[in-house]
Amino acid sequence: MCRTVDLHQAVLAKNDTNAVELRRTLDERGTTAVNLMSSPGSGKTALLELLLTRAVAGGVPAAAVTADLATENDATRLARSGAPVRQILTDGLCHLEAGMLGGVLDGWLPEGTRLLFVENVGNLVCPASYDLGETLRVALASVTEGEDKPVKYPAAFGLAHLVVVTKRDLSDAVEFDRDAFLAGVQQVNPGVPVIETSARTGEGVDDLLARVLRAADGLEPHAPVLAQRHEKHLHHHHDEDGPERDRDRTPAHGAPDKAAAHPPHGPAAPHAPAGSPR
């Protein structure tokens, strides 16, 4: 059991190192990365296609990377927007990792790309633990999934900088309890902004794009309380580890260098606290 835990921590530590490097590279290029996480069938591909279409129409240089276990269906759909799109096939892996994303971007991401949307694997569990070097982490849930998603998946929604409701036009048909959903969001992530959208009607899409563009302009994103607690947890163990371990720590794990630990486009800490319900 201990070896399993140690291996998991080693994987996360390596991912964080890669995420720090990728974030620095994207920042130098002036590219803002947006990590989109949701369960399968939430409608994030349809929403992302509309976001990309409006970005292209508005003259905003945008690109997208989409991840799936198999098929390139989503990349084909997103390419209809006119934006550059790449597909990552994870071969069964239930999440993206920073190294995988960096490998796809190397030599492909067009110069001058301002917005990079990353459509993570459809899953609300393991993607929450992996920093991709993103500026914005967005958790999406459709009204058709029910109003209890935030409290059932507290890490995914608790570490998000922004929460997006999809398929808003179906709310009445599925008797979506909006108040209960919003209460659950605030329970796991107090103060996080929520945008309600519909890819069918276009509701909320312009607001979402505007929010992303403000982040690209340097607006500091919402700071999740869960991430702050996790940073304290990491600092506590860092103090116990001593100076030898300090040399091996990465900024994403709470390095003492303030500038490195909080880069201009740095997101909340990605890992859920030990023992956090999944």
By oligomeric state, this entry counts as: single chain
Principal-axis shape: globular
Strand order of the largest sheet: 3-2-4-1-5-6-7
Mean pLDDT: 85
**Which class best fits the helix and strand makeup?**
alpha/beta
| Cα distance spanning the termini | 19 Å
Kindly list the characteristics that best describe this protein.
278 residues; seven-stranded parallel sheet; alpha/beta; 12 helices; globular
Describe this structure in words.
By secondary structure, the protein is of the alpha/beta class. It has 12 helices and 7 strands. The chain has a 7-stranded parallel sheet, sandwiched between helices. Helix 2 runs parallel beside helix 3 (73-79) and helix 2 crosses helix 9. The longest helix is centred in the N-terminal third of the chain and has 28 residues, at 2-29. It is globular, with a radius of gyration of 18 Å. The two termini are 19 Å apart. The model is unreliable at 233-266 and 272-278 (pLDDT under 50).
